[in-house]
Amino acid sequence: MAVTSESTTVWTGTLADGSGTTKLDSSGVAEFPVNWRARSEGEAGTTNPEELLGAAHSSCYSMALAHALTGAGHAPESIQTTAAVTFEAGRGVLGSHLLVSARVPGLTEAEFETFAEDAKANCPISKALAGIPITIEAELA
């Protein structure tokens, strides 16, 4: 069964001077302010597309890793994933770096790294980001 998720952004003004809001329509759980300054320089209290992309990547990756580990008989106690998405004005999104720490009883570091790399390659958001480099640092907690 396919599920479609929707978000809406309403923007007012020019790129440099304008601003907008991005709303998570499907869930209705949040609405975020967005503007160019937050994207190009960083601004507290205002998000940007790369931060939202990082949220999608880190959550999808964590689910993919949990699924792979559980399917192989190694149910994780916890997985923490940070996705650092880099953007440069004029060049675009340059990459996503995954920083992963997990508690998985009975697994060696080498075994875990194999699962971590497999999840990176097979996570649906990683596949959608095939046009950018995706790097990973993964360790057992």
From TrEMBL:
Residues 1-26 are annotated as: Disordered. SUPFAM superfamilies: OsmC-like. Gene3D superfamilies: 3.30.300.20. InterPro entries: KH_dom-like_a/b, OsmC/Ohr_fam, OsmC/Ohrsf, OsmC_Ohr_Peroxiredoxin, Peroxiredoxin_OsmC. Residues 1-12 have a biased composition (Polar residues). NCBIfam families: osmo_induc_OsmC (TIGR03562). This is Peroxiredoxin. The lineage of its organism: Bacteria, Bacillati, Actinomycetota, Actinomycetes, Micrococcales.
